[in-house]
Predict the structure.
Amino acid sequence: MRGVFVDTLGQCPGLVGYRASVRIVGKELDPSIYREQSYEQTTRQTYNQQAIESLNQELTTARGHGDRQSEANILRALGLVHYNCGDIRRAVGYHEQALAISREQGERHMECLSLDDLGDVYALLGEVRRAISFYEQTLALAHDIGDRHCESSALNGLGYAYSRWGELPEAIEYHKQALAIAREQRDQIGENNALYGLGYCYADLANTHAAIDCLRQALDLARELDNRYAESNARYGLGRVCYLQGEFSQAMTYLERARKIDKELGRRHHEGVVLNELGLVEQDLGDVHTALSNFKEALTIAREVGDRYGEGTILGNMGTAYVALNNARMAMYYHKQALTIAREIGDRHGEATSSWFLGMLAERYNGDLVKAVQFYEVSVTWKRHVGHPEAEKEARQLARLKQRLQKKR
């Protein structure tokens, strides 16, 4: 399914990171969608060009025989392969074709799967409202046909989408519902996705103990399933939490292992996600120039994929790196870009994070207390909304700044 981010705000330039990037979890191809075992074996082994070429050959054959059901199955498989390889726009086209055929043929289970797939791709592209529409359609159809697996997947998707909007309590509730259904159905892949989503959200709320508990369970399940996509996700998630706890050596170990797996799988988008997190660790270890190099590579990948959420996150991280270098001009340049993207895609978490840093820059480098107050208020409002443990600390800092401003008047 899907996959994760983080928030580490603070007051001291150079001592804090911004956020880890996006979430993406390799969605497993259901063996039942294949007419022959060769499909499953090819895609699971490589998810590369060889798999795509093989599936395209099978697609030509299915179309030649007028076999619409197999055509839909193969189109969906191609969409999943391209999604996991980071070719998201092409994945959209395949999933849309699969959806059209499934509706034409009255194949409601395949329709449910295709709707869920489209939710995934649009969430990754930052079109969250559209993604939610697809997930809600999936959920309604899953209820109608009694498909508990699709229901769990749709709930996980809604959790993923709401976390992208920074609506973390709602996201957690969806993931909890998905986890309960997955365990009831003995659906270990669905259980893994829900645990990963919960770990991601708990990390964003600075509840690192709960995050570690969920992510360790996810890692154990991934190993049990021999699912390397899920293993990479869980290792990445654990690396993020270790970073938050200041355990930088352990964070590097988890993240480097995740990146190695991604390289072996040809999973370029998630490799960019991991690079972004490695940049945060390098920055806190004092190697800001290496951090910037990682951020720039991650940014290139995010833009190639069309991941606006990830692009905004990485731009914010670059801004924070320039804060560490005491380069206020460049820090503002990148944080302003990050803020623009966050507002465009409705990412309240990203908006709050960039607003905090822009407030800090306005206060400390420009002496503009009015702008600083405006920016800080955005962050405090969001943190109070989600129940973040740093909310009241920031609110007190904001109150002190307002008092200073009153005295100046």
Summary: The CA atoms of residues 29 and 100 lie 19 Å apart. Residues 1-26, 28-45 have pLDDT under 50 and may be disordered.
